[in-house]
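Task: sequence in, structure out. Protein: ANTAR domain-containing protein.
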Amino acid sequence: MSSDARPVGAEPAGGPEETAPSVGATADEIFELQEEIDQLKQAITSHAVVDQAIGMMVALGRISPEMGWVVLREVSQRTNIKLRNIAEMILIWGGKGDMPPDVRAVVEDTLDKYGPTQIPDGPSDP
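Result:
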């Protein structure tokens, strides 16, 4: 048997035990990991808010989800407000009816721009 023989089932050199964090992680490592967890939690929450706002744009404008995303993005660009914040405003608008008039005007104009010209399955114009 050679000197580099390992017991059956042992990991080869460079295996997980060499890449796994040590049990005695430093305070800096713990802090960095906590920051990463916090950022991931915020990303998940922001994603859910944006998805709900897209759903409202779909319902209000009778547009596809893809166009709902385009509407949110354009409103964000035209108002110079972060997309996540626009999404939050739209959800508040849906629940309470409150939205800054200038932002509401941009939302309505943008929905008009991308929305259908007639109600789906509705009577056509003569």
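The two ends are 93 Å apart (CA to CA).
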